[in-house]
Here is the input.
Amino acid sequence: MAKRKSLAADPELDSDNEDASERSLVDVDFEFFDPHPDVDYLALKRLANQLFQGDAELLHVNDLADLILSQPLVGTTVKCDGRESDPYAVLTVLNMQVHQNNPSIKALAEYALTKSSTTPAFQDTLQTLLNPAAGSPNHVGLVFSERLINMPVQVMPHMYRMLADEIQWALDDNEPYNFSHFLVISRIYRLSPEEEAELQGPAPRSKRPKQSAPQKPSSGGVYSFHPEDEQIQKIALHSLDYNFTNSQPREENAFGLDMGGRMILFPATRLRELVSVLQDAYPPPS
Here is the structure.
């Protein structure tokens, strides 16, 4: 049984041989489920590997998947073929203080501090939050959010609303979800000026590079895989893009994307505001 009602969506499917005016629509019902230890472990590992790319092996994704599945009452997966199928998307939050000795959370905390070294103000804030004094009320919630490339962003307002509700229900039951801040780890890709010019050029759609639904660049040809990042950044205390530690140099004229990571820190008090902003920005298809 789905944890919430299904949400209909109409993602557009492009064919290499079709003009933009000849797109077809497919009506899909997405169902939302609690994370399930018996069926979701391998899919969560795949999504974590997709999110962290070459750095995944540094971050103990096996332990991360186990930890996500150990708290099934907080977090949501999205599926199309019932509970036993693989999730197409996941959104959850993990308490980085409560789980600070978990190998994955420990590695992720060190990773965040290392990557934020390019922005001293961000690093100082993280240092204070991730190494609090005894009795400090500051707890950081690590937001784990990833999905398959073609999943429409319209599922995200619903997922963030459910996350906000579940955090409140957990607090009502005295569970350790009283966060002061949320840390979102996302990912980006970069296009060279030549690639951007080609992408925006007059060539027929079927002849253009098949990129992953590029969003408006933030600066210097940087695009987000997650369109909702733009809305999260509006309420953020800090945000930065970084290079993966284990990324391979991209050779000139090589295929593929020049990818990197993104970290966003925002106050927990603005989570409900974010839900409202996402609902306005990405309403369900009519």
The CA atoms of residues 49 and 57 lie 8 Å apart.
